[in-house]
Design goal:
116 residues; mainly alpha; 2 domains; 4 helices
């Protein structure tokens, strides 16, 4: 089964620049284990400016991935805070029932010395 390799934009740009600087197809083919036709395609794309667009798209993708990672961390932090607060509500003392008045205030609980 043939296994296809994926090369970065920087690598493709480097190969095209080496060829345009005078390196032979045969030399690049042997040194990097690439086909001559693939090198020709990369050189044509480099000269057409396609690698500049690809590099800009790759940079934009990297920025988006970093933003997504930051947002995922924020969501995780907020989920932990929410669980913490829910746990606090479960363990809180029950609310006192009974009427409260702005004038009279809340009902007072008996103090220990009144109980005796």
């Amino acid at each position: 089964m043939v296994r296809y390799r994926s090369h970065s934009i920087e690598f493709k740009r480097q190969i095209a620049q080496e060829f345009l600087a005078g390196e032979t197809l045969h030399g690049l083919e042997k040194r990097h284990d690439l086909s001559r036709n693939l090198i020709r395609v990369w050189v044509e794309r480099y000269q057409a400016g396609a690698f500049d667009e690809d590099a800009a798209a790759a940079d934009l993708l990297q920025q988006y991935e970093a933003r997504i990672a930051a947002l995922e961390r924020l969501v995780g932090k907020q989920a932990l805070e929410l669980e913490f607060l829910k746990g606090g509500l479960r363990n809180a003392p029950p609310a006192r029932s009974g009427p409260t008045s702005a004038i009279a205030g809340p009902k007072q609980s008996p103090s220990p010395k009144d109980a005796g």
